[in-house]
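Query structure, 217 tokens:
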């Protein structure tokens, strides 16, 4: 099957729904590369949808852990995590209260999220494998796969990441990597990337951020 990789959602539920409508379940594996939550207006709804899709399409839908999921897990299991609260966590907590949704149950699901998806040609993670990383899968490392913002290592595979917002998908030739976090939560767009499992790009999907997902200025 082909792949349909989606960038950082950050609580942009209405926008995420529009992107999911572009998923061909008959021919594509869905992979979302982390940061489902925080900053947008619909974090509980985004997680609810992700859980539904994972349950319905267990072998065909994958949701990768991002640093915001990690931070939320830390706050709920070992409070307080003040960094998360300052980075959108307080608003997410209020959204959960307003929605009447069990945040602890969702956190148990977030804890099951993998750190990456990969095959012989492609490696998909939230922040990528840094050229500076000695232990890339250590979840608290500055250069680890959840937090890295330094140049990526050439791992002889195409890397697809998010984490660092940009206006448009950015390809880095030196590391053979794409950053597809196109700042949906800041009013830009959510990006989806369709490609073969060999790494050959088939199509790009760009969904302008739905105004309902953003804070009113």
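Result returned for the query:
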């Amino acid at each position: 099957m082909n792949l349909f990789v989606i960038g950082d959602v950050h609580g942009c539920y209405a926008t995420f729904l529009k992107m999911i409508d572009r998923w061909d379940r008959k021919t594509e594996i869905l992979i979302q590369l982390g940061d489902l939550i925080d900053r947008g207006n619909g974090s509980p709804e985004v997680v609810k949808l992700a859980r539904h899709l994972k349950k319905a399409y267990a072998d065909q839908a994958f949701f990768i852990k991002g640093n915001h999921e990690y931070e939320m897990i830390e706050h709920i299991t070992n409070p307080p995590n003040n960094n998360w609260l300052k980075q959108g966590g307080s608003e997410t907590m209020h959204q959960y209260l307003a929605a009447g949704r069990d945040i602890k149950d969702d956190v148990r699901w977030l804890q099951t999220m993998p750190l990456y998806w990969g095959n012989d040609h492609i490696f998909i993670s939230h922040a990528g494998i840094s050229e500076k990383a000695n232990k890339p899968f250590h979840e608290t490392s500055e250069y680890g796969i959840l937090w890295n913002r330094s140049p990526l290592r050439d791992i002889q595979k195409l890397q697809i990441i998010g984490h660092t917002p940009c206006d448009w998908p950015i390809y880095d030739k030196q590391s053979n990597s794409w950053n597809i976090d196109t700042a949906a939560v800041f009013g830009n767009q959510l990006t989806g990337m369709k490609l073969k499992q060999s790494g050959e790009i088939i199509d790009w999907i760009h969904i302008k951020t739905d105004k309902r997902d953003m804070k009113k200025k």
